Amino acid sequence: MKTLVSGASGFIGGFLAEQLVASGHQVSCLVRKSSSLQYLNSLLVETRPGSLEDPDSLCAAVRDVEVVYHLAGVTAESRSGDFARVNSQGTANLVNACLTAGKKLKKFVYVSSIAAAGPAMDRTPLREEHPPRPLSLYGKSKLAGEEAAAAASHAFSVTIVRPPAVYGPRDRDILTFFKLIHSGIKPILLGGERYFNLIFVKDLVEGIALSASKMEEGCEIYYLSEERPYSWTEVMQTIESALGKRALPLPIPLFLLKTISHATHFISRWTGKSFPLTPDKVAEIEQRYWICDISKARNQLGFTAKTALEGGFFLTAEWYREQGWLSS
Ligand SMILES: NC(=O)c1ccc[n+]([C@@H]2O[C@H](COP(=O)([O-])OP(=O)(O)OC[C@H]3O[C@@H](n4cnc5c(N)ncnc54)[C@H](OP(=O)(O)O)[C@@H]3O)[C@@H](O)[C@H]2O)c1
Predict the structure, then answer these.
(1) Could you list the residue range(s) of the whole structural domain that residue 41 is in?
(2) Which of 14, 131, 179, 260 is least crowded, fewest Cβ atoms below 10 Å from its Cβ?
(3) What is the CA(71)–ligand 1 centre distance, in A?
C-alpha cells in the first residue's frame, strides 16, 4: 500500500513509519523544513515537504497515496493558538487536501487522544459511544480534528484512534518522572489517588496499523490502550522497579500546581514565552479517572496491547540509560 504518515518525525509517528516499512508498505512522510530526520534517515521512506498550515503543500503530499496516517499535531502550545491552528485547522486542511487531491485515497486514520473525550466521571471507563466532554483546549482541538476527519467519511473510510498516555523509547514526557525518581524524588499528588490508562508506543503503532486494515465505509472510533488502568502510585512504583531505585515521596498539593500555572500563564502573556504547566494542563492533571475501555478494538480489530507496564517501563529505562538521557 502507498501510505503517507504525517508527524513521522515525532515520537509515535517515527515508530509507525518503522512498523509500516517492516510490514512491506511504501511509506512517505510529511516533514517540515525544520523537522528532525534523526530516526527517519535509517528507514526506507520517502520524505515529502509540507506543513499542516500550508494547504498547497498537503495537496502535493497526498496525491498518489491510498492510506493517510495523520499523527502530526501539537500536545503543548509554543505560541498561543497553536492547538486551534495545528490540531483543528491543520487537520481540516489535510482532510480537504485528501478530498480534492487524494484521488486514490481509501483510508484516513486520525490519531486523536483520550483528551478529545475528556476524563471519565467515575470508575466506569470511557467507551466510544459516550458523548465527548473535552476539558482542555488541547482536548477540544483534538475533538475538532476528529470532526473534520469524520465529515469526510462519505469520500473515504475514516478511522479515529484515541490513545491515552503513550510511553516508550524516545519519549520526553514520561522521561521527566524517570529523571525525578532517578534523582531520588517520587512526586505524589495530594487530593486522592488518580487512575489512568497507558500504552507502550510499539503496541500503539501496531494497533494504528491494524485499524487501517478495516476498510468499511463511514467512520469508526477506537480506544487503543493496555487493557487495565493503573493508579499513580503503581506507576511511580513501577518506574522505581524499572530503575532499580527507591525514591523519597514528595507530596505535591494541587493548589501549588495551580498557583505555579497561573503565575507562568501571566508571565507568558507578557513575554510570549510558553511554559509546559498551564492552567489547562493542571485541570487535566486534577482529574481522577483518565480511563478507557478497549473492548471495541479487541472485538472488532483483534487488538491487544502485548506489553504490560512493568515490561514497557523496563525497556524504556534501558533505552534512556543507553542514550544517556538519565544522567543530565
Ligand atoms: N504522546 C502521547 O502521549 C499522545 C497521547 C495521545 C495522543 N497523542 C497524539 O499523537 C500524535 C503524535 O504525538 P507525539 O507524542 O508523537 O508528538 P510529537 O513527538 O510532538 O510529534 C509531533 C509531530 O507533529 C509534527 N507537526 C507539528 N506541527 C506540525 C505542522 N504544523 N505541520 C506538519 N507537522 C507538524 C511534528 O513535526 P516537527 O518534527 O517538524 O516538529 C512531529 O512530527 C499527536 O497528534 C498527539 O495529539 C499523543
Answers:
(1) 2-167+199-230+290-307
(2) 131
(3) 6
